[in-house]
Structures are given as structure tokens and as C-alpha cells.
Amino acid sequence: PEWYLTQVLMWIGNHAQFLDDKIQPILDKAGSSVNAGLEFSRGLVMLILEKLAADIPCLLYDDTLFCHLVDEVLLFERELYSVHGYLSSFPSCMHILSEESCFQRWLTVEKKFALQKMDSMLSSDAAWISQYKDITDVDEMKVPDCAETFMTLLLVITDRYKNLPTASRKLQFLGLQKELVDDFRIRLTQVMKEETRASLGFRYCAILNAVNYIATVLADWADNV
């Protein structure tokens, strides 16, 4: 997918000056409110939507290819809005990703890869060690690596779904994040039970620091609608 997505971005960028200098004055002179650059972008995005509608059914059950497609589409959307000033009221790839079969698959794959990430972060040798343990002014909370990595994982998931066109779809992703928080809580509890004989031990204290850090960050996020 990156080939045709990049190609469209190149076309939009390469034609911008011509559309602004040559076509827009004609439209302005005719009293039209049409923006030539945006209409050109909209036409090309419609081609992308047709291509995605044809491609996605072929990729739905190949996790790696489907995940790659979603990643590339999200990068494309980000550049389309931030660099080329595309309007949120126009058709976008997020509408295709929001369609039921595609969306449910996206949620499933997102959860699968998130759980794999959680497995690896907790089995890491550095799981209970703070990355900043030698820098006292940075490390007041003594946050273990696994807790910091977990919260980064949640933040990345938010960043991926925040541009979905409907609140109901965003809430489904929020539901996934709540499941992941609960799963992480259960994993911490299991590790804590193994450490109860050494409640002042290094790992037991690291678990308490992790819980405190996660609760603090979630409280900070409470203002983020």
C-alpha cells in the first residue's frame, strides 16, 4: 500500500503550485468558492478509497499484511492533514477502516499485538528496573520499565484511533484500552503474590511504584475527552 499512498502524496505536492498559481485565479475570477488544491486532493483520495475497498477483503485474515496496511494508511492520513491541509469534512481512509468487518478485524489485531507486547515487556530482564534510576531529578517516582512501556503502548493506541470519524468507534477502542489496563493489573497481581514473602524487596517495591505511576498518569488523562 505504501507505493500508491506515497504516489498520491507526491501528486498532491507536485501539483500544489500549479493549482494555486494557474487554476485558483480562474476559479476566483469566476466567483467560485471552490479550492482547486483541495478538490484535486479530494479526487485522488476517492481513488485511494476505491483501491482500499478492493484490497482490504483480500488482506483481512493475514494479520501481518493487514496490520501493515493499517499502519501505512494512518501515516498517509497524518501527512494528508498536517502537510497538505486536507479537510476533516472530506471523505477519508478512516471511513473505510470504520466499516464493520474491517473495524472488528482492526480491533482484534490491535489487541493481539498489544498482548504480545505486554508479554515481552514483562518477561524482559529490565522489566522492574527504572530507565532513569541514576538520574534522581528525573526519577522521583522510580517507575519500572514495564509500567512506562505499558503507558506508552496505551498512548500509541490512542494516537492511532483518535482520528476515527465517529465517537462510537473511538469508544470501542477505549474499551480495548480498559481491557488492557485490567489485564496488566492482573499480571501485576500475579507477580506481587510471588513476592509477598519479601514485601520490602526490590521487585515488590517496583510493583507498588508501577501502580502509583499508572494511577497518576490515568488521572492526568482524565481531562482528555
Automatic annotation (TrEMBL):
Gene Ontology CC entries for this record: Dsl1/NZR complex
Domain of life: Eukaryota
Pfam family, one: RINT1_TIP1
Alphabetical GO biological process terms: endoplasmic reticulum to Golgi vesicle-mediated transport; regulation of ER to Golgi vesicle-mediated transport; retrograde vesicle-mediated transport, Golgi to endoplasmic reticulum
Name of protein: RINT1 protein
Organism: Crypturellus soui
